[in-house]
Amino acid sequence: MENNDGFLPLPKHFSTIAIHEAQEPEKWTHNEVVIPLTLTVSYKQSEPGVFRKYAHSRNGNPTRDALERILAKMENGKTAACFSSGLGSITTLLALLKQGDHILCIDDVYGGTYKLFMEVATRFGVEISFSKCEVSNFEKNIRRNTKMIFVESPTNPTLQIVNLAELSKLSKRCNALLVVDNTFLTPYLQRPLVLGADIVMHSVTKYLNGHSDVCMGVLITNDEIMGKRLKFLQEYMGVVPSQFDCFQVLRGIKTLTLRMDQHRRNSMAVAKYLEGHPKIEKVIHPGLTSHPQHELAKKQSSGHSGMLAVYLKGDIETSKKFLASLKCFTLAPSLGDTESLVALNAIMTHNAVPKKERETLGITDNLIRFSVGLEDTQDLIEDLAQALAKI
Ligand SMILES: *Cc1c(COP(=O)(O)O)cnc(C)c1O
Q: 16 burial class (0-12, 13-18, 19+ CB within 10 angstroms)?
């Protein structure tokens, strides 16, 4: 990857941060090299109200604190607060708003986020509306009471790119917070705070943990006042992760760069193979020159992950037949894991979005989303070849 394929350079010291930040063995009783898993909920006080650092694990504990320090540093932020799921972190974000405020959200958004905004936030008098990915469209849809702009880039599942630096200028002009869901790229490949975002959100469940065995979310900011507010909400809304899950993620992120490099190589190989295949109508992958926003992707990110989407030539039956024939790709709705996963988004992740809106968004019955994993490249391609031969 000479010149990083025209994308921004990969961040320096990234693996070193993942492996060494917040890991001072001298801090622990026995100089443990690996951060200990501290399961206690309660901490003894020497007299009423006098305690060393922690009182109750919901407020803070050594395992979670270490993870938050690393995640903040990776994103170029000052404060990170972890939550019990990605959606839990977005639920907590809602508590930054009040009745009568408006969220302007990108239209192609994670299905769960859509449901949370539409079916929960609106009950508390928060207005929600949606915008296409162009900054000019956001500008058109801003309201007097817009307090938060919420985007993903690339979006899920159609991998559209939002110009984050431009959008952050707009959000600052309108006094709205810009929140970027950076789940698809991780801080290794995109750093929204540097581009002007106020808060970065991740579903840690996906690439950051990377092994499909933890559900977690995180909010990261470089504004100290906002950081304090998020820590307060973490403590008093109580949507916290378990210490065990924090321990698992501390282990998972040590190999983040290795994994992302392989996800990236594998997804590119798969994208190129599928792009030339006669049974495929179209491949969407930000690393392909055919992606309509390929140049923008190169300008604001350091690469692409394992995510891609394709339109098969055919209908729902073709899609089902194809999915049933795959052996190396597991039919499952998550992403960012070691194993390759595949999803029929219209049914599996976006059934909450009305059919007509889904189709406007391009989430049709022949759209298949791939989360390309870490298997041997040739095995993945051979699997796709045999499944395509059956449709
Ligand atoms: C999975 C996902 C979420 C939700 O995260 P959970 O950890 O499953 O609650 C939010 N945004 C994106 C882009 C996701 O892929």
A: exposed
Told to judge if 264 belongs to the known catalytic residues of this protein, a careful annotator would answer no
Could you confirm whether 173 is annotated as catalytic? no
CB 162 within 8 A of CB 151: yes
Q: Is the CB of 106 under 6 A from ligand 1?
A: no
State whether the beta carbon of 85 lies less than 6 angstroms from ligand 1. yes
CA distance 273 to 66: 41
Q: Whose CA is nearest to atom 6 of ligand 1?
A: 86
Distance, CA of 28 to CA of 234 (rounded, Å): 25
Mutate to test the pocket of ligand 1, among 203, 341, 345 (most ligand atoms within 8 A of CB): 203
Catalytic residue among 101, 110, 147, 273: 110
| Separation in Å, CA 158 to CA 206, 286, 311, 381 | 17, 10, 10, 22
Strand partners, 177: 148
Per the annotation, the verdict on 206 as an active-site residue is yes
Q: Quick check: CB of 86 below 6 Å from ligand 1?
A: yes
Q: Is 58 a catalytic residue?
A: yes
Nearest to 297 by CA among 179, 192, 161: 161
Q: How far is CA 133 from each of CA 150, 203, 361, rounded to the nearest angstrom?
A: 11, 21, 11
Cα torsion at 65, 71, 72, 75 (round to 10°)?
A: 180
pTM of the model: 0.97
Q: Cα(125)–Cα(174) distance, rounded to whole angstroms?
A: 20
Ligand 1 mean position, distance from CA 50 (Å)? 39
**Ligand 1 pocket, mutate which of 82, 85, 87, 242 (most atoms under 8 A from CB):** 87
pLDDT tens-digit readout, 83-135? 999 999 999 999 999 999 999 999 999 989 999 999 999 999 999 999 999 99
Interval 37-67: pLDDT, tens: 999 999 999 999 999 999 999 999 999 999 9
138 near 104, Cβ under 8 Å? yes
From CA 207, how far away is CA 64, in angstroms rounded? 18
Burial 158-189 (b: 16+ CB within 10 A, else e): bbbbbbbebbbebbeebebbbbbbbbbbbbbb
79 in Cβ contact with 224 (< 8 Å): yes
What 8-state DSSP symbol labels residue 103? E
